[in-house]
Amino acid sequence: MPLPSHLRVLCVHGVGKHPVGGEWEAEWRGVIEAALLGIDPRLELEVGFVHYDDLFEKYEITFLGTLEALGKLAGSALSSPFRARGLARGSFGGGVRWSAGMVVKWVEDARFRRDTRARLLERLRRFSKADPTPPDLVLAHSLGSLVVYDTLTATPGLRLPGTKLVTFGSQIGNAFVSGQFLAGRVQPLEEIEHWYHLYNPEDAVFAAPIRLVHPRFEQVVTPFDEPGMADHSAPRYLAHPRTADHVWSDFAIAAGAPRLYRSRHAPAVIARERAPRRRALLVGI
What we know:
Elements: E1 6-12, H1 23-39, E2 44-50, H2 53-58, H3 63-77, H4 85-88, H5 94-108, H6 110-125, E3 137-141, H7 143-154, E4 160-168, H8 175-181, E5 192-199, E6 217-221, H9 234-238, H10 241-255, E7 259-260, E8 269-270
Parallel strand pairs: 1-2, 1-3, 3-4, 4-5, 5-6
Antiparallel strand pairs: 7-8
């Protein structure tokens, strides 16, 4: 599908403090603009954000709840050498503990999921109050990826044939999450145009690969290691060289552009015409 001249990008954050107009919005916007405006500077790019910190405050978790959540998610991680990294280091940071608690709280609380679905659904059907068009691209990080997946699969009649989805730092493939929330299996998203899943084996916030083979799904391994233990940064995922080569370059090819520029933190790359890729699971170590 050709790249539209007016591209609507909807960003869905994960667990943590994401205030309206906060620094996180500028960070995401900077990476997105560097990638997409590098394809075509004439592109009319509109970036919107879904906010739901107020729902986190509504569904509080206790310290005991975070410990129980760690046990559930880390139990799944023990079967995977990548997610066991945090356990091997002997401790989890406070942010990781709280994130684990909120993910499990969301998975196990039907009301919480219903509220986040309602919040997101409004923006999927109508990008903004002034623009009744659905987004062309949805970027969903961490718990935000669960919210998007839940909304797409639990809303009868929702069809977004012109929308692409990128999930990253996502717990969708975590054994506990998929077992409790997804009946043990991740389903393809037939409602959208294409789904990219960025996976960092170093991500300690219980991110996991997705075992799915489907023509509209592509998993991209995006390894990075940063100071601290989480390795869960949304901008690092979006600015990763492999994200440029697989995700942003697909937009470049659609636009007929010979060059694709990644974020300001990464060097420019040439988006070469490639033979069609098999959109299948990529397993990297």
